[in-house]
Amino acid sequence: MTRFIDVSHQIVAGMTTYPGLPGPVIDDHVSFEASQRTYAPGTEFNITRISMVANTGTYLDMPSHRYRDGADLSDLELEKVADVPGVVIQAPGREVGPEAFDGVDVAGRAVLVRTGWDRHWRTDAYGAPEHPFLTEAAARLLADSGARLVGIDSVNIDDTSEDAKGARPAHSVLLAAGIPVLEHLCLLELLPADGFRFFAVPVKVQGMGTFPVRAFAIVGD
Ligand SMILES: N[C@@H](CC(=O)c1ccccc1NC=O)C(=O)O
Question: Is residue 37 situated within a structural domain?
């Protein structure tokens, strides 16, 4: 039997995804009440509006998030984000180095790094500099081995502590290789180690380099 496993966070008005960035504002553009004058009695509609920074909820980074001439959301090939064979890597420590991928065939796959940091989602601890991240060497290994998509259940795929001095090697290496990056995944413990198909498709907006996705896996056939 086919099962769908949702590994994306819910987007809620006012919530913080990334410390320092504003939370989404969700309101009515046309309320049910206001729409009534347009329609027959008993017929009404609601059109809402969301105002948010692109880095909200569980989102995908495209090369143009990092590089001025990089591919944006409208350039994204669906092969990179839909029906991709997935693999989950267990990585309980803070630094996820290349050894975490020893013996794992990552070529052509969505590589999802499970650190467990999603347990802190919507608490102050979530954005703390101690969050887990991928090292530059790990990012190079994944790029050189042909990973199709790389995701993590942490606040950032890079080290954002003062030690990093503002460098973002995981973003830099993966996005330079044309590998989209997913951040703020959750519930990766619900997935099998492999044998699932993964989906994380954003909308097709020209000129934007990041956007929320509904990230989910299909298990079984
Ligand atoms: N994901 C990127 C970019 C980022 O978070 C950011 C970029 C410009 C301005 C603000 C940012 N984040 C929080 O304030 C990073 O790792 O720093």
Answer: no
Cβ(179)–Cβ(148) below 8 Å: yes
CATH assignment at residue 210: 3.50.30.50
Binding site membership of 53 for ligand 1 (Cβ less than 6 Å) = no
- Residue identified by tokens 């495209």 is 62
Q: Which residue from 181, 183, 201, 173 is spatially nearest to 79, judged by alpha carbons? A: 201
In a domain, 187, yes or no: yes
> Using a 6 Å cutoff on CB, does residue 20 contact ligand 1?
yes
Does 48 fall in a domain? no
* Ligand 1 contacts CB of residue 183 (under 6 A): no
**What is residue 167's predicted lDDT score, i.e. its pLDDT?**
98
Domain region containing 163: 3-15+53-219
- Which pTM value belongs to this model? 0.97
What value does the CA radius of gyration of the chain take, rounded to a whole number of Å? Answer: 19
What pLDDT is stored for residue 202 in this prediction?
98
* pLDDT of residue 221 exceeding 80: no
Q: How many domains does the chain have?
A: 1
Phi, then psi, of 125 in degrees rounded to 5: -65, -25
Question: What is the number of other CB atoms lying within 10 angstroms of the CB of residue 166?
Answer: 7
